[in-house]
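re: ur question from earlier - yeah i can do the single chain one, its not a big deal. heres the input i used so u can compare w yours
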Amino acid sequence: MGKNKRHILNILIGGEAGQGIVTVGNLLSKSLVRSGYSIVVTQDYQSRIRGGHNTFSIRVGTDKVVAPQEQADILVALDRDTVAFHRSYLSPNGLVVLDDSLDINDDSFLKVPFKEITQKKFSNIAALGVVCSLLGLNESLVSEMIGEALGGDEAGLSEENSRVFIAATAWTDINAPSSYRLATPVNTINGQLMMNGNEAIALGAIAGGMKFAAFYPMTPATSIVLNLVHHAKKLNLIVEQAEDEIAAINMAIGASFAGAPSMVATSGGGFALMTEGISLAAMTETPVVVAVAQRPGPATGLPTRTEQADLEFVLHAGHGEFPRAIFTPGTVEECFYLTSKAFEMAEKYQGPMFLLTDQFLADSYRAVAPFDIENSPKANPARPIDISSPYKRFEITENGISPRLFPGMTSNLVVGDSDEHTEDGHITEDLSVRKQMVEKRLRKGEGILEEVIPPDFRGEDASDILLISWGSSMGAVQEAAARLRSDGEKVATLHFSQVWPLSPGQFMNHLEGAHEVISIESNATGQFSRLIRRETGFHIKRKILRYDGLPLTPEYILEGLKQIQVSEAG
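and the output i got, formated as tokens:
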């Protein structure tokens, strides 16, 4: 094998739930990030309490890595099924690391005598030592990571973990090829962090001014709120697990009505129960941020897989007509900043705002630079000052935004009603007032439209191919386009990190100037391309759609483009 160091590698760790796959994956990922490398993590796990085949994939690069990869360069098999399930995904000259007791033979196998190195319960740490040696990571740095992560275990276990790691590293140094060593990182960021999408959403909520969160556990959104729980005592936050999603949304509305910027986090099935509450927030003009982490449906679907099939659901959720914004982060950084933006917009326009993410981004760890917390958007709740009587909570204004006070904070009487109401908040069936109130609420949408985040366009104008994407598909689409450009093709990308409202003036010139426009989405019906057609009349005829529960990759997109070209040629 050659001695050239690698600039990018994909490491796939597989085994049965309970074998410590996540422990190995997290330790390796943190070690890589602390060493200055860029990573994209993809976690794949079955919806089972015990057992089931799980994988933890780390794509690592010396320069910025933005997308997962289909093929594995190093396959770490902690059980026999991993070889059976994933051997076909091994790249040319790839390597399978496995226990020699599995008694499977092939030229691409590195058979490690785990039984000689350690007892079975430490085999995951031994596997970590093998991989770290293959990659050429600093042994002291990884040992430090093991101490930080596992040092709190019962007496003796921490020392044994360190011993097993060192022994596995020493064996690999002697017996394994050196052709998988990583080159030195490029443009290392000082103090870069390892973080997944849900962790960034939680931090973005805190930075945005959140004071109250309510939830009922539902994969893959639960860890958003669990991260808030972790910081709650120190930052004086209230986080409440409700008896169901109906209670959760109404708790958040109540807290916000009292002056505390609030959020809920859920997935499709839980959000279905929240939709009446969404309309309540709209009618009472109460700010609330709703994070919806998508997974495949209908019904329970695939609870631990990924998809982008709830766009139309979130867009139309809630009865009646009222304005909203839907943010769709494409990176961990955007998870942070767009969550903060959602809080700012909710407070400013006094209503529900939405953050639409998915399982892939929720669980995908990345290397990120520290966030600019001071300059991130923030909620700005109304100040508790007296207003000349009579106070009109729903005063009809030119921009639709009415003066907002909190009950009990001033001498003013604050009245709210879920029925249609007058300017001072009392129920009414005056149909002329009804018309005025509908128009008042909708006028807030004009302000939201003026603040729409423009889609990110990359490439040349009048391109041969324009690839359209939204949300977590951002990295895969951009890498696929970069590969095509390196082959001499004229390809551009247009990525939406906010999918509602749409401002056609921001992007129609790109759509109309491209020779061919192709929409790339993780759903079966091309929901975003349909939305573009509805709002602009522009029909995106070609689509690359993935809905098998796995995230989009550059390889999947390039194969889809080949199929389109074949069909057009035919």
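Residues 5 and 183 are 5 Å apart (CA to CA). not sure if urs matches, ping me
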